[in-house]
Amino acid sequence: MEGLKAAAPWYEQAGITFVGLVDVNHTISALYNLVNVPSAVWIDRTGKVRRIDEGAYATTHKNGDFEFGRADYAPMVVNWAHSGDASPYLKDAKQIKLKAPDKEQARAEPAFRLGNYFQSQGNEDKADEYWALAQKLNPDSWNYHRQDWSYTPEEAGRNWVKKVESLGDKPYYKPIEGLDTKTD
């Protein structure tokens, strides 16, 4: 769990001028039901959530024959920055409904955090035990899988490809609503 140390080169390369969050315990992911990274939550100046979307990539990427990411998201953010509350991509804050986790998903989060705790204490066997439990209880959370895989980099890529292939026709990221509107 190198947190900011691991993320810093990415932030520096991108030259970010916005607030970035490194959430090693996935507290924000759990709060907003985010199952993968990068993801975004649009929060307006008044503190109201205006969008929760999966797949906040700025562009598409290729890894061999596999293409991932999206080119449609960054123009939406630019539109919001230019148009503010008039952006057609904002949702009414009253329409944003966070889905409560089911019983299994609710149990996954503390199991995941216990895995993180044991990893930080150097007890990899216990960490693996709790991470496996979290993944079993909430198999749709890519965050749980990625955290576990990050400790075996030589296997991480293979594990990720295997999981992507297991999706079949299910999309890696849910489609973004509202893309029928023109961006500037």
**Share of β-strand residues:** 5-15%
Q: How many strand segments?
A: 4
Read across the widest sheet, the strand sequence of neighbours is 1-2
Q: What is the overall shape? A: globular
Whole-angstrom Rg: 18 Å
Main beta sheet, described? 2 strands, antiparallel
| Residues in helices, as a percent range | 40-55%
Structural class: mainly alpha
Low-confidence stretches: none
Number of DSSP helical runs: 7
* Spatial gap, N to C terminus: 39 Å
Question: If you had to describe this structure to a student in words, what would you say it looks like?
Answer:
By secondary structure, the chain is mainly alpha-helical. 45% of the residues lie in helices and 10% in strands. It has helices at residues 4-14, 27-32, 73-83, 103-120, 124-137, 142-149, 153-166, and strands at residues 39-43, 49-54, 60-63, 66-69. The strands form two sheets. Strands 1-2 form a two-stranded antiparallel sheet. Strands 3-4 form a two-stranded antiparallel ribbon. Strand 1 (39-43) and strand 2 form a beta hairpin. The longest helix is centred in the middle third of the chain and has 18 residues, at 103-120. The chain is globular. The mean pLDDT is 83.
Characteristic key phrases:
7 helices; single chain; 184 residues; mainly alpha; two-stranded antiparallel ribbon
